[in-house]
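Section 5: illustrative case.
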């Protein structure tokens, strides 16, 4: 067993959770997991939605489609904030107009966050090559623990 001084810097119990949220089912599961865990640890949660960069869609979307999607995301985030309140967890939604990986890594440094949670859509190898994998890049580049929720 390693001694505490070899475990790195930062709190032993994470107090500031950052969750990447894109409206997908895995992101929803990651957010709910973060809220339950934060409730048991007395932590705060930030839900970050990044609208910039690739959407992972082959076809361009119209302004109306984009606005409709943002409205659905905003509604989902409000529901998650309510779920956090019900659990006694302080929750804040954050919006960034940059690609998700960049937004999450930058905001994690700004807080600073202790723990990062994201969902994964389970892309196939060719899809990951074509679209990239936010979760894989976060695991490789983040300087804090990352949990990827399927």
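Designed sequence:
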């Amino acid at each position: 067993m390693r001694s505490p001084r070899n475990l790195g810097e930062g709190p032993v119990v994470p107090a500031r959770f950052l969750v990447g949220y894109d409206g997908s089912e895995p992101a929803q599961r990651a957010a709910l997991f973060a809220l339950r865990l934060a409730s048991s640890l007395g932590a705060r949660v930030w839900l970050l939605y990044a609208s910039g960069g690739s959407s992972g869609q082959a076809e361009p979307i119209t302004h109306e489609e984009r606005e409709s999607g943002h409205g659905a995301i905003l509604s989902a985030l409000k529901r998650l904030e309510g779920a956090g309140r019900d659990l006694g967890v302080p929750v804040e939604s954050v919006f960034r107009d940059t690609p998700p990986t960049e937004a999450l890594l930058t905001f994690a440094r700004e807080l600073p966050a202790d723990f990062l949670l994201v969902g994964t859509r389970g892309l196939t190898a060719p899809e990951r090559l074509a679209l990239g994998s936010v979760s894989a890049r976060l695991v490789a580049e983040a300087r804090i623990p990352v949990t990827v929720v399927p």
